[in-house]
């Protein structure tokens, strides 16, 4: 297999996400709902990234979770897949594509600029628990992105884009939906932390050491838990709840895609 054979699939996947983004945004601006076409393009993009991951996996011999290129590819696949399922099963979520798809397109622009260097998987990482840890992390970030999309609609309704979402339920209903999704996200993140501790014991002989990624992952969990407590215990308006959801996602985004590459701890370059 030729070197970097996965690149054409990556570029095509980014192009599919870009087409879906443009169609969703311009369709909303013109009052034209192109949901089937957007869904089809999203499915094409997810499939192309799955093929790219498979091709690279076959070439380098391990899954996409070591280098920045691999982590971006796996997140473009998993985030697109989770949002795609929500888009299919929850019609009320579909207009939030104008918020979610630009985030995917941003990741797509990022991966195009990253060198697809080959990586090496340390033998100590090859434990079954690693897969539970990684999958739960992807589900956490994916469901969080769905909540971000719904919260983004609430915020955009306070701008000139309000007409784009005229057919959606009121802010109170959207707020309740967004926090239900975030509750699922909290469950996935909690299980991710538990699985990560078990994996750390297998890989490094300790459950927790407060290395930078562990610390920031726990801070993300605390922020989400506190936000849910504040949402339940205080009369926070829907726009305030939406801002808290965005804060959680930004913190999670920086934790997963920033901290591992700025740290010299065992987690360096691994998500």
Secondary-structure blueprint:
Elements: H1 7-29, H2 35-60, H3 68-89, H4 97-113, H5 128-156, H6 171-204, H7 212-233, H8 238-257, H9 259-262
**Secondary-structure element string:** HHHHHHHHH
Radius of gyration, in Å, reads 19 Å
Helix percent reads: over 70%
Poorly predicted spans: none
The overall pLDDT average reads: 90
Beta-sheet strand percentage? under 5%
In whole angstroms, how far apart are the ends?
A: 26 Å
The shape is: flat
Largest sheet: none
The overall strand count is: 0
| Class inferred from helices and paired strands | mainly alpha
Specify the number of helices: 9
Describe this structure in words.
The chain has 271 residues and is mostly helical. The chain is 73% helix and 0% strand. The chain contains 9 helices and no strands. The protein has helices at residues 7-29, 35-60, 68-89, 97-113, 128-156, 171-204, 212-233, 238-257, 259-262. α7 (212-233) runs antiparallel to α8 (238-257). The longest helix is centred in the last third of the chain and has 34 residues, at 171-204. The model has no long low-confidence stretch (mean pLDDT 90).
What descriptive keywords fit this protein?
single chain, mainly alpha, 0% strand, 9 helices, 271 residues
Summarize the model shown.
This protein is an all-alpha fold and 271 residues long.
């Amino acid at each position: 297999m030729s070197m970097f054979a996965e690149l054409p699939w990556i570029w095509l996947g980014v192009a599919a996400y870009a087409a879906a983004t443009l169609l969703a945004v311009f369709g909303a601006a013109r009052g034209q709902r192109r949901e089937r076409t957007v869904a089809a393009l999203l499915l094409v993009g997810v499939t192309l990234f799955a093929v790219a991951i498979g091709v690279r996996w076959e070439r380098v011999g391990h899954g996409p979770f070591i280098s920045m290129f691999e982590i971006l590819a796996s997140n473009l696949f998993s985030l697109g897949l989770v949002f795609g399922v929500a888009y299919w099963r929850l019609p009320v979520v579909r207009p939030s594509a104008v918020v979610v798809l630009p985030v995917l397109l941003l990741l797509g622009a990022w991966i195009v600029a990253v060198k697809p260097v080959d990586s090496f998987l340390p033998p100590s990482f090859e434990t079954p628990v690693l897969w539970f840890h990684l999958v739960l992390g992807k589900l956490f970030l994916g469901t969080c992105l769905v909540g971000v999309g719904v919260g983004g609609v609430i915020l955009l309704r306070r701008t000139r884009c309000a007409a784009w979402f005229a057919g959606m339920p009121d802010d109170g209903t959207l707020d309740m939906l967004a926090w239900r999704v975030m509750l699922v996200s909290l469950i996935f993140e909690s299980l991710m932390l538990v699985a990560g501790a078990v994996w750390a014991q297998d890989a490094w002989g300790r459950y927790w050491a407060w290395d930078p990624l562990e610390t920031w992952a726990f801070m993300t969990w605390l922020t989400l838990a506190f936000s849910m407590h504040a949402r339940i215990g205080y009369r926070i308006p829907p726009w305030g709840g939406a801002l808290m959801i965005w804060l959680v996602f930004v913190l999670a985004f920086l934790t997963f895609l920033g901290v591992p590459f700025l740290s010299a701890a065992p987690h360096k370059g691994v998500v």
